[in-house]
Every structure is written in C-alpha cells, then in structure tokens.
From TrEMBL:
PROSITE patterns: CHER
Pfam family membership, one: CheR
Catalytic activity annotation: L-glutamyl-[protein] + S-adenosyl-L-methionine = [protein]-L-glutamate 5-O-methyl ester + S-adenosyl-L-homocysteine
The protein's name: protein-glutamate O-methyltransferase
SMART domains: MeTrc (SM00138)
Keywords: Methyltransferase, S-adenosyl-L-methionine, Transferase
SUPFAM superfamilies per the UniProt record, alphabetical: Chemotaxis receptor methyltransferase CheR, N-terminal domain, S-adenosyl-L-methionine-dependent methyltransferases
Biological-process GO terms, alphabetical: methylation
Top-rank EC class of the record's enzyme: transferase
GO molecular function: protein-glutamate O-methyltransferase activity
Transferase among keywords: yes
C-alpha cells in the first residue's frame, strides 16, 4: 500500500506559508476529537488538546492553512480519503520500543512448548513501527527455529506499517534488545546504512505487516488465526463500549486455549469476555 504524501499542498496558494495563526479552540478540538473517534474508536479528552495541536500544526503549515477550522473543512471535504489517512497517522502514532514490558516476552518463551501448535501464529494487534512484532520474532526464532512460527503485525497507521516493513532501526535503540539476541539475529548497517540495524532475513521473512482498524475487522488478513495475541497499550485509548467491541472481535478470531496479552496498565475488568486471567495482563481464551 502506498503511503500518504505528507508534502501535499493543495490548499489555497494565495496564503503565505507561515506559522499557524490561531490556537486550537475548544470547539475545534471537539470537532477533531469526534472525527478521531469516528475514524478509529479512540476517545480523546481535554487533556489531549496540546497533543492534538502539536501533531497537526506542521500539517497546517504544509497546507498553508491559518487555523484548525480551515483544516477541518479541508479534511472533511477530501473525498479521496488520503487526508483522513494522514490525519489518523498523525494522531494515533505512539511511542514504542523493543521488548517493552519484558515479562510478556519471558512468559512467551516459557509457554511455547505447552501450546503444541506449529506453525505457531502470533498477532501483534497494534504493531506501530514494528518493534513489538520483531521482538516476538526474536523469541520465536530462538525457541522454535525457522518455518515453525508466523507473526502478523497490524496497525491503523499506514505510515507506521510502512516503516515497520523496512525493518530498519537506528542504532540508538539497539540496547533495548538483550545481548543474547543481538549477537545472533541482528545485522548492523554499513556505508549508507551506517547508524542503523536490521533483523536477520529468517526473522524478517516470517513477520507479515498490514494496515487494519481494530474497530471494524471481522477476520484477519489472509485468514490468519492467532494462537497468541499481543493487544498491548491500545485499549487505554478506548471507552468501555469500544473496549468490549475490540475484545469480542479479538476473541472471535482466536482458538480456545489461545493466549491474550494486554498492557500492564490495562484491564478487562467490567467487560463480559471469553477470557480468564492467567497472570497479570495475560489471559486464556475459553469457550
């Protein structure tokens, strides 16, 4: 899928390309927050005003728009859907890193043999720029070897997925990966790629990446059926109704006995689910 063009400047050309003239008003924020919810299911309260303003300000300058009301008009008038994709990318891209919340990866390594399913399918349901999916791949390749596992990574952000597909990361992040994996599965860039690293071909080939909205899927790309799901640090952006919908959809594509992992700051409390708690932030799919 071709990524959106962030240099697009189809706004009125008689406007000077200077700073945004006005602050984000309460009315504009509410309209934009409603659009975020409509497109993604993510709820944004007033605490997100600085984030919204900051992430959109550069876009307004590129489009030569002087305030956020003009951007709302531009966004809602774009019938191609391209600006919607850019808007979602800007608002939903989150910070991530390799082996975030390491207890989940220790659990994964300990329980692989008990699942007895090959190839083992693992879904990274909010993959962002790929660090989570490749962290999973490092563990699986080490424990299972080639051709005995597959990872699917999905995200609503097309730009994030495009970056994940490159599997190319700055050396500043290499210390996030345990030395044991670094020495076996990482490749350091040379010449024009100096200052970056990538994963070995055997890992990259078994990690597939695609765009997908958690709020409206009924099946996974290619009919993928995950034995393990990493649904981490995404439900914190949803209201209770949206959480219920996402968890129900996730359960519908998993087999009985499958494992669901959520962020340590998240909970399924208050939801009617087909999951039972195994340990903190780890659940088993039940009938």
């Amino acid at each position: 899928m071709r990524g959106p063009d962030r240099t697009k400047t189809e706004a009125p050309l008689n406007r000077p390309n200077n700073i945004v003239d006005a602050a984000l008003t309460a009315k504009e924020f509410k309209t934009l927050a409603d659009l975020v919810f409509h497109y993604t299911g993510i709820k944004m309260d007033d605490r997100k005003v600085p984030l919204m303003a900051g992430r959109l300000a550069r876009r307004l300058r590129l489009l030569r728009l002087s305030n956020y009301s003009e951007y709302i008009d531009y966004l809602t008038a774009d019938s191609s859907g391209e600006e919607r994709e850019i808007f979602v990318d800007l608002i939903t891209t989150h910070v991530t890193h390799f082996f975030r919340e390491p207890e989940h990866f220790k659990f994964l390594a300990r329980h692989l043999n008990s699942l007895q399913r090959y190839p083992l399918n693992v879904w990274s349901a909010a993959v962002s720029t790929g660090e989570e999916a490749y962290s999973i791949g490092l563990v699986l390749q080490d424990r299972l070897g080639s051709s005995r596992w597959q990872v699917l990574g999905t995200d609503i952000s097309a730009e994030s997925v495009a970056r994940a597909r490159t599997a190319l990361y700055p050396m500043t992040g290499i210390d996030q990966i345990p030395e044991y994996y670094r020495s076996r599965f990482l490749l350091k860039g040379r010449d024009s790629m100096e200052g970056y690293f990538t994963l070995s071909r055997e890992i990259r080939d078994q990690v597939k990446l695609d765009t997908m909205n958690l709020m409206d899927f009924t099946s996974l790309p290619g009919g993928f059926r995950p034995d393990i799901v990493f649904l981490r640090n995404v439900m914190i952006y949803f209201g209770q109704e949206e959480k219920q919908s996402v968890v129900d959809r996730v359960a519908s594509v998993m087999p009985e006995g499958g494992i669901l992992m959520i962020g340590h700051s998240e909970s399924l409390n208050g939801l009617k689910t087909r999951f039972k708690l195994v340990q903190t932030a780890v659940y088993e799919r039940i009938s």
